[in-house]
Amino acid sequence: GVIRLRAMAEKGVLKYPIIAVNDAYTKYLFDNRYGTGQSTIDGIMRATNRLIAGSVFVIAGYGWCSKGIAMRAKGMGAKIIITEVNPLRGLEATMDGFDVMPMRDAARIGDIFVTATGDIDVIYKECFNLMKDGAIFCNSGHFNVEIAIDALKKMSKSRRTIRDFVEEYTLSNGKRVYLLGEGRLINLAAAEGHPSAVMDMSFANQALCAEYMVKNYRKLERKVYSVPEKIDAEIAKLKLRSLGIRIDVLTPKQKKYLESWEMGT
């Protein structure tokens, strides 16, 4: 999505301005983290009826979607392993208390695997033969390219659907592994996606940013813009109000202090 649009803008082939709603605080801190976190677990459980507690739960990537998935799986009693290519996110996952390792190492010990990276072949050919008999894997981050499904098909001696959204692949080594939702977004393939109570902020971003572009399109260049800070803040304010929650307001004296350099130095 946004990655491709930024690449188009950099190469000068973007035809019109874009506002990257996915980069708004009121989008990724809530929709990505809490929405994806909950709905991914929901999809896995609906598809498999698998007990999460006590399982080794491998999550590829440690962006906001993955953080939400890890939070929910940990809360249900799973042991979490994170795989990453970004050293900062790998370090963050470590400091958050999770084991971090390459996918090849995680493949040997994981019970349930979820990809959430936006890239291809995150679970790649060599991983399948290393997996436990009965390993389950699915995707919650992009299209059905994060798992090397074509390679999986070629190296399997049989394939069958054992229940809705669950395909059993019997590998040449005799192990059986399970692909959920054809590798498509598991929270949409096997569940109902995010609850409206978190999607409302994402939709508000889309609507208000569309209005902003209508009013300001003559000033905008053919590039990718962030959501205006005022829109982001207003959505958070409205969401709090809808929940019946009030927060403090800075006094004029506090505002002056934050904006100055003379006091407190």
Task: Please characterize this protein's 3D structure.
The longest helix is centred in the first third of the chain and has 24 residues, at 25-48. It is globular, with a radius of gyration of 22 Å. The strands form 2 sheets. The chain has an 8-stranded mixed beta sheet with strand order 4-3-2-5-6-9-8-7, sandwiched between helices. A two-stranded parallel sheet has the order 1-10. Helix 2 (25-48) packs across helix 3 (64-75), helix 2 (25-48) runs antiparallel to helix 9 (196-216) and helix 9 (196-216) runs antiparallel to helix 10. The N and C termini lie far apart (45 Å). It has helices at residues 2-10, 25-48, 64-75, 87-95, 103-109, 125-130, 149-154, 186-189, 196-216, 229-242, 252-259; strands at residues 18-20, 56-60, 79-83, 99-100, 112-115, 136-139, 156-163, 166-171, 176-180, 224-226. The protein has 265 residues and is α/β, with parallel strands linked by helices. The mean pLDDT is 96. It has 2 domains: 1-24 and 195-259, Adenosylhomocysteinase-like (Rossmann fold), CATH 3.40.50; 29-190, 3-Layer(aba) Sandwich (Rossmann fold), CATH 3.40.50.720. It is built from 11 helices and 10 strands.
